[in-house]
User: What shape does this take?
Amino acid sequence: MTSRLDAARRDRELDQLGRERVDVLVVGGGVTGCGIALDAASRGLSVALVEKDDLAFGTSRWSSKLVHGGLRYLASGDVGLAWESARERRTLMTTTAPHLVRPLPMVLPLGDDVDVKDGLLVDAGQRVADVLRRAARTSGRVLPPPRRLGVVETQRLVPAVRRQGLRGGLLNWDGQLEDDARLVVALARTAAALGASVLTRVRYDAAGRLVDEVTGESLAVDATTVVNATGAWADTITPGVRLQPSKGVHVVLDAAALGRPTASMTVPVPGEQNRFVFALPHPDGLVYVGLTDDPLDGPLPEVPRAEEAEIAFLLDTLSRGLERPLSRADVVGTFAGVRPLVAGAEGRTADLSRRHVVRLEDGLLTVLGGKLTTYRQMAQDAVDLLTDVPCRTTTLPLVGAGRVRASQLGPAGPRLVRRYGSEAPDVAALAVEDPRLLEPVAPGVPVLGVELLWGLLAEGALGADDLLERRTRLSLVDTWAAAARPAVESVVAEVHAGGRAL
Assistant: This one.
């Protein structure tokens, strides 16, 4: 079966779902839900996944785009979670999605804000984390070991670093996702290739029926097990679950504002233990700066917004380590998300565990907590409760995980291979009859016309916002989204009119 998702397949499989029983109905199209759908389908279960909005609509697209090895969890004493993170990082980087995850050098400059004692503690933590890397059998060619840096090398990797008092830096390596939403789409499409139905704009209502948000029609669904994978909104399906959601905010900078760094820069949060602000460079010429961690009370917003006080906190903290302080004018975009933390003892959300909880009661399986890096283990633990068939996902590559030479695809090759892996030639082939599709969709914007078509014809995008917000991430930069919207809406109209097909 093909992995490609489009509007016609959605309508066909939604109609079929109303007439057939499925083993597993997954509610929620984030990394957890898509991971569970893939795991269940790979073990031979019949699976349907429904998402009331779009794939990666919620928390899964608002991460720091990191595949963590668990250094922070070591600092808090949770060796088990750090070990799980190190194992899952290796699986993602070497088997599941090597085309979407790359090694990222991360530098903690040793300046006036890091005293000798704190520097030694961080250095020791990095070396313990490296023991876990080696125990997880992650090669040094994939993630090199940590080391100390001199002043000159620190300045080369993070050119905007504050010179006064700088005595070098600490370097360690972690995994960086090309794009968290692309990982979710790849999971969904791989599940679809194994027979799962992936249905966006379909809501699971309180009566256990499905509502097509496109047409307004509803239908009954017959499923042996319903999986609640709605994250921070889990209590809308499973009453009584105890969550303490927290809000994480990032700001987006033009990389030129930080001298175009080639490594992440880490700055301690003043007066806090084990809390840092990171400046994470991205190949599109951007830097993501985060992260806040504040409790959210009351009704949760579907799309949280960054408040000015949160933006100021991130800029002020990062500026402590910079030669030139940042201002609000340096910000080209912001994004914020909700972490689905499992409630614990009284304390800050920043101190709550990122461990996950899986609970099966009366045909309703609820998955709570966790984090993006460990989504596969979460899915395995969930599906283990539904079948005795062994898990396959530790050795199952996602669509696009093969190798291809970027040089074979001309000037667009490096970008397409970076984002689509071995499917890059198929994406490029959409421009055979119109080479202009290999050009940016608007001046100053990195996204190419073929990417818009591929999102609609193969990745399940149904409208302009799906493309802007999740398939291309143009919305992360306000000016990019505004410049590209006319081209995006034009391509959507053409495809919906039947003018394009694979």
Q: What stands out?
A: Residues 345-352 have pLDDT under 50 and may be disordered. The chain is about 30% helix and 20% strand.
